[in-house]
Each structure stands twice: as C-alpha cells, then as structure tokens.
Write a structure and sequence with these properties.
By secondary structure, the chain is an alpha+beta fold. The chain has four helices and nine strands; from the N terminus they run βαβββαβββαββα. A nine-stranded mixed sheet has the order 2-5-6-7-4-3-1-8-9, with helices on both faces. A hairpin with a 6-residue loop joins β5 and β6.
Amino acid sequence: MSPSPLIVFSAFESTADPRLQGWATFRQSVQTGSFATATAPEAPARPRARAPGVPTGHSGIWRLLAPNSRELGRSSSVYGSFSGARAHVLELKTVVEDMVATTVTGPVAGTHGWMIAVGGVVVMTSGRWYGAGSSSREAAFGTIEAFRKAVVAEDARYSPGPGRRGNMVLTEEERASLW
C-alpha cells in the first residue's frame, strides 16, 4: 500500500474491450447527468488542459487511487498513448487550483456523482454513485486534494482480455507496441 494517493494508467488492446466499454458507459451517464451545483467558481480557460481525442486502436485511461487502492476518480478521456496520458496528468497537476467540481444527479433517484473540469473541459469523473449530494460534493473536494498530492506512476498496466484476471506491468517495448 502506498502512503500517498497514486495515479495509475491502464492500457487496453482495443476500444472494444468490455472493461473499457464499462468505463465509457459510466462516464457517459455521469457527463449527461443533470447538473446540480458547481462547487467552485468557474476558472478561466487554459488551452493546455484540453482533453485528447478518442483513439480507434490501442487505448488507455488513468485512475486516481487512495493509499488503500480505492478508486477516487478516473480520467474522462481515453488516450491513444501512454506518453500522452502521462503528459496530460502531469499537466493537470500544474492547474489543480483551476479545477472546478460539479455535482450531478444520477440515472436513478437518490444517486449523485461529480465531474471535474479545467477551463470548461471535463478532465475527471467520479467512479461511482453516491447516496447523497453532500457525499458527492465532499468526495469531489477530497479527490481534488488527493490529485494534488498524488504520485504519478512511471509505467502502464495492461488489462488482459476478457476472462483473464489481473494487470501486468508493461516493459518499455511492450508499452510502445501496445499503446
């Protein structure tokens, strides 16, 4: 267990990977949720915080993990390369003070989530639904603070295809060929 929050990267062989599709479905439900309350003043636009486009082949995401490995937040973008994903995370760490958390109402009554944007671009979403709006707000604020302190992983983890368990740390050559 790491003593600090950790940002990890997961690589997928294809955008058709069921785990990546589950991530995309949840992201869509958060981003189309009805906006409840912006929890910080709107920040000025910063062009360097723009999210990368969605790749069509090998792909990956990042996740922010608490010291106990519980997911706190996840990228709102799919990245086409590990270097692009890691560079974007490092860039976001320089603009943490510009992060704006917005709570959203979930697809079922009594569910709440959050999104975090920089310059109007959503860069992170919650990874789960909360039972109360106040819990969602607290989680969003805590996630921003954890992101500020997080250690950024030096490598990517490959998620093997359906039916296979676990993650493998990729070597530099494997990462280059996959991502």
